[in-house]
Amino acid sequence: MKKLFLLTVLTCLIAACVPQQGMAQSKKRKKRKKPSTTQIDEYFDERDNLWVHMWYGAQIGQITFINSQFAVAASPMAAYKFTDKLSAGLITKFSYSYQRLRGLPGVSSYQTLDLSIGPIARYRVIPVLFLHAEYELTRFEHLPTDNFGNPQLIIEEGKILTDYTVQPYLYVGLGYQSRGSVWGYEISLQYNLLDSATHFRIPWDIRFGLNYNF
Q: Of all residues in the chain, what percent carry a pLDDT higher than 90?
């Protein structure tokens, strides 16, 4: 009889504990709700803030029209805005030149393509004026030279042979930026601080361009 009484009490205790454990587990499940659609959107909006602080642009410069020679340079760039005034990024440049030749048998023109890449930094002084600094390495295509540095004209199979030289440039300058829209145009004047007699470009460079979100 005593054993039966103890078994009955034990059974009642187990029955009482099971619902409580089930309710506790149910509460835990309720606490672990799936994130709402709004929370998910806010999360991805935070991740996209990187692109909100980016600006993009493209410049045209080194435009030359002299007799039968033509040259132009295009410079796409992208940068990150650390503050409303300070930004830094990367610029690439493609410089093309064309010269029509006369008096050379089988050769009518001479063309070169120079490639550049490097970091840039900008600081907005006032809403419409900014300072620009740019360091780049440029691979120049040019005529081969002899031991004294004199250019040589060598023609093989109807083409003028070319050689390559890599030179550094450090541009600093001042620019004007239009306001009133996320798209804008800019005009800047740059000067190369590393200019020397062996460089292939003139030190001054006037650039025109468009930008987005600058």
A: 49
